[in-house]
Amino acid sequence: MTTQPEPRQAIALKYDGKQAPTLTAKGDDALAEAILQLAREHEVPIYENAELVKLLARMELGDSIPQELYRTLAEIIAFAWQLKGKFPQGFDPDEQPVERDITPG
C-alpha cells in the first residue's frame, strides 16, 4: 500500500503593527509555490513550519490569527524584522539584555 504525499501548503500573513496578523493568501501545490515565489520576488522572509501552516490554512482569507497563536506569530514576526534590520520603536539592538532574578522571595 502506498500513501500519497501530503500536498505542499503555503500561507501568507499581513501584519500592520496595529492589529493581529491576518491571513491574506493560502494554497496547496502550484498555488503554494506561486505564493512562495511572490514572497521571494518581494524579499518577504519565508518561515517554514508545516504544522503551523496546517492550522492557519483552516482559516478563511481575511481572518485574524487566533489569540492562542499570538506569541508564536510574535516570535516569527520579530525574527523576520530582525532579518531585515528592523526593530520596534524604542528598541536598541546593541543594548545588552538585563538579567533578572525571577525567583520568588
Automatic annotation (TrEMBL):
An example Pfam family from this entry, by short name, is: Bac_export_2
Keyword Protein transport in the entry? The reply is: yes
Recorded hits in SUPFAM superfamilies, A to Z, give: EscU C-terminal domain-like
What InterPro entries does this protein map onto?
T3SS_substrate_exporter, T3SS_substrate_exporter_C
Keyword check for Transport, yes or no: yes
**Keyword annotations of the record:** Bacterial flagellum protein export, Cell projection, Cilium, Flagellum, Protein transport, Transport
Which Gene Ontology cellular component terms are annotated? plasma membrane
> Gene3D superfamilies from the xrefs?
secretion proteins EscU
Report the record's Gene Ontology biological process terms. protein secretion
User: To which protein family does this belong?
Assistant: Belongs to the type III secretion exporter family.
Function description: Required for formation of the rod structure in the basal body of the flagellar apparatus. Together with FliI and FliH, may constitute the export apparatus of flagellin.
- Protein name per Swiss-Prot or TrEMBL: Flagellar biosynthetic protein FlhB
Q: Which organism is it from?
A: Pseudomonas helleri
Lineage of source species:
Bacteria, Pseudomonadati, Pseudomonadota, Gammaproteobacteria, Pseudomonadales
